[in-house]
Design brief:
By secondary structure, this protein is mainly α. The chain has one domain. Helix content is about 50%, strand content about 10%. The protein has eight helices and six strands, in the order ααβααββαβαβαβα. The protein has a two-stranded antiparallel sheet. A hairpin with a 4-residue loop joins β2 and β3. The longest helix has 20 residues, at about 5-25. The protein is globular and about 45 Å long.
């Protein structure tokens, strides 16, 4: 079983940056009801074992029929070769994450962190940056987050972790 303490600390550090941005901008785009990123993933999220253990706790708390639906979506995700990926944990009717408190680092940092070579990812936020609207935002450094995640071990697509759970 992986040591969860480094992941817990990383979550806390991400929360500090997210809260700072939200405090300065109460109208921030990323919030409850916005599921643009959840509906347009470039690929299946990659998780460390520590992230998977946390996510698995959230999945275990879901009703059996919801978990079966997620399982079907995970299987489809494994077969998908390209195109935009919809997160299997998204309740598409409400645009809410079914495992929000247990979500991976990629989900926690999206929209609040920038990566040196890849930018911000969110096209809505990138549009505001291009207009000069967000010049005062102090973005989190996603390259540093990735380095910390690398220290947590192997990263695998979420659907592979899920498949191992039921195998």
């Amino acid at each position: 079983m992986p040591n969860q303490a480094p992941l817990v600390q990383l979550h806390q550090d991400i929360d500090v940056r997210v809260h700072a941005i939200r405090a300065d901008r109460p109208d921030w785009l990323c919030g409850k009801g916005c599921a643009t990123c959840c509906r347009r993933l470039a690929h299946a999220p990659l998780l460390t074992a520590a992230e998977w253990l946390l996510l698995e706790e959230g999945l275990a708390a879901l009703p059996a029929e919801r978990l079966q639906a997620i399982g079907r979506d995970m299987a489809a995700l494994a077969d998908q070769q390209s195109g935009h990926v919809v997160c299997p944990m998204l309740d598409q009717a409400t645009n809410a994450c079914l495992v929000y408190a247990h979500r991976p680092v990629a989900c926690r940092s999206y929209g609040f962190y920038v990566q040196r070579d890849l930018g911000l990812y969110c096209s809505d936020i990138e549009t505001l940056v291009a207009r000069g609207t967000l010049t005062d935002v102090v973005w989190g450094n996603h390259d540093a987050v990735d380095q910390r995640l690398a220290g947590l071990g192997e990263r695998r697509p979420v659907h592979e972790w899920f498949a191992d759970r039921i195998a």
